[in-house]
Amino acid sequence: MTKRFNLGFKYRIYPTKGQIELLNHQIFVYNQAYNICLNLWQKEQEKNRNLPKEQRKYRKTQSYDAVVKRALKFRKIPFKTVVTQQARINFLKAVNRFFSKDVVAQRLKAIEKTQTAKEKVKALKLGMPKFKSSKDVEQSFNWNNQGYSIIDIDNKRFKILRVMKQNFKIRWHRDLPNKAKIKSITFSKDVIGYYVSFNIEFEKEIDLEVSIDTFDISKSIGIDLNGYNIAISQPINNTHLIDNGANNRKVIQNSRIIKIPQRKQSRRVRKGKIGKNFKKTQKKLNKRYKKISNQKIDTYHKISKTLTDKFELIAVEDLKIKNMSKSAKGNEINHGKNVKAKAGLNKTILNASFYQFQSMLEYKSKLNGKLFVKVDPKYTSLECSMCGNRDKANRPRQDYFKCTKCGYETNPDIQASKTILKRALESFGIGTILMDLKQKAFRSVSLEIVS
Prior knowledge:
By secondary structure, this protein is α+β, with helices and mostly antiparallel strands. Helix content is 45%, strand content 19%. It has a seven-stranded antiparallel sheet with strand order 2-6-7-1-5-4-3. The protein has a five-stranded mixed sheet with strand order 10-9-8-11-12, sandwiched between helices. Helix 8 packs across helix 11 (354-367). The chain is globular, with a radius of gyration of 26 Å.
């Protein structure tokens, strides 16, 4: 069966000094065009607020483009029309998201929960487009799928991207899929360097025929994500704890090369001495933070590829990371409890990047024609996978699980991964045998398109 995918491929580029100036200028133009559109939209909203629906006027797309071009010409800022148009397109997408059903529902829920004036103001602005700053560390701008070419050179490790009358040298670490169509191009930068990302669309033949004869239940796994490891369980009592590298990252984050500059920066901020030395030190710190982040991403890519290549069904918890990492500070009326402990837990959850790892598993599973299932996360660490007994006393300590009914003992993370796998198999009508296999359910999961 042929299936269509939309994915992003990111490559490092090595621009010359002149090309760096060009990219930085296009980023500045993109931000200015976006901010002009946002300013026009806000003024329009203010005018329409107190008017009846019949008298309200809304600006057309061509009007946004005309005002942006006129403003940039007045400021004598040279610009590429493609960049300003892409800024306007992305701005309008942000506005549409602001008025989408999901965001409106989230905003209404947030407003209902507010107890103070500050909270209400914040809730009313939930999802609203924000002005872009050219001083931010990470910047980007979009280009469309026209006026470019990718040129081969003698060195197989590199290619040339010809765009904006410039030849950008790309570190070509992986090929694009066969017959892939490039939908858009994004140039970006961070503290380490410059990058180009291709948003591509391609078709791939995937075998979706799932039956009792072809599906191997022994190649199904349940995954429980922890701050410091990834617990994996298979049906036939095969369990593993994979280190996610959090301890190594923690050692680096607490080392002298990071802690000492951090203290210097905090002293400079308190004294109001934010000058050249502050910026130099912050740049070094940002590079170290980025290196730690890249190491984590690399580790997760390797683990997720190994798992998706080896197993046919992967089950994870349907976690709501935003709810899990909410602050416990409270507000002026209701003060929080155990604020420091919750802050530490939130930091561990965010550093582990559960959502990022699950996203990698999901799109790689679907690319390979594998099954990816999300199950209800409630009580997975308290419910015994052997007898189904659910009791708080099953987990007397954070690192120990013992069922109060059947006496089953194991690592709590391994226990949770077994429960996750059990729930995933039960959702397809599968127990310990394959007699009740539901082929339609398998197909419905596999046919989801990666976006």
